[in-house]
Amino acid sequence: MNSLMIHETTELNELLMSCTNSINSMGLFLSQVQCQELKSIIEKHMKGHIQDYNMKVEWATKGTSHDTLDVPTMPPAVRMTGVADMQKTTPNPNTTKLDDRAIATSYLLTLKRAGREYAWATFECANPELRKFLEDAFTMCSRHAYEVSGYMIRKGYYPIQEAPNTYVQELSGTYESVQNSGFVH
User: Fold this and answer.
1) What does pTM read for this prediction?
2) How far apart are CA 160 and CA 147, in angstroms?
3) Contact status, residue 117 vs residue 18, Cβ threshold 8 Å
4) Which residues have CB under 8 Å from 172's CB, separation 6+?
5) Which domain of life does the protein's organism represent (predicted)?
6) Cβ contacts of residue 73 below 8 Å, gap of 6+?
7) How many other C-beta atoms can be found within 10 angstroms of the C-beta atom of residue 41?
8) Which among 32, 107, 115, 144 counts the fewest CB atoms within 10 Å?
9) pLDDT tens digits in sequence order for the chain, 185 residues long
């Protein structure tokens, strides 16, 4: 058994609790989702989250893992054509069932939170193999979040707007490239 540092095992515990919550939430989402596209996204992602969880269990119990996380490829770019008008929403403190927007929102926020946790844990990790796994888990969450946000944008659940040309021009006029790149490795 390889030894992990105490802070690495503490991070693993937090990540295992987070992953347990994510998988439980995904199971609940699958039991309530109506939109087949969203259901397919969650079903496809579930495999990766279960593999990620099982690898964390292996790290926590054996101090190592011999598996490699299946990191998904980058989803296609979100196209702004065919985007629905922004749909209004209001929280419902008396809800007993989630609609597709609430499911997508909750799942997206779960992925974003998990991604931040993986990034933080990665920076604190001394074990290079565990660090690589955590980097892969971050990338998985990032790509899953990108796919879910794309779905939400197309449905009008997530506001997105192209930056005005005046702002882009102002920004581009603010920074200049470094001319002497002799210091770059």
Assistant:
1) 0.90
2) 14
3) yes
4) none
5) Bacteria
6) 143
7) 20
8) 32
9) 568 899 999 999 999 999 999 999 999 999 999 999 999 999 999 999 999 999 999 999 999 999 999 999 999 888 776 677 888 899 999 999 999 999 999 999 999 999 999 999 999 999 999 999 999 999 999 999 999 999 999 999 998 878 888 998 899 889 888 887 676 66
Q: For residue 141, with 0-12 CB atoms within 10 Å meaning exposed, 13-18 middle and 19 or more buried, which class applies?
A: buried
* Rounded-to-integer distance, Cα 185 and Cα 177, Å: 16
Structure tokens at 95: 């809800």
User: Could you tell me where the DSSP H helices lie in 63-178?
Assistant: 100-123, 128-155, 165-172
Best CA proximity match to 4, nearest among 67, 56, 41: 56
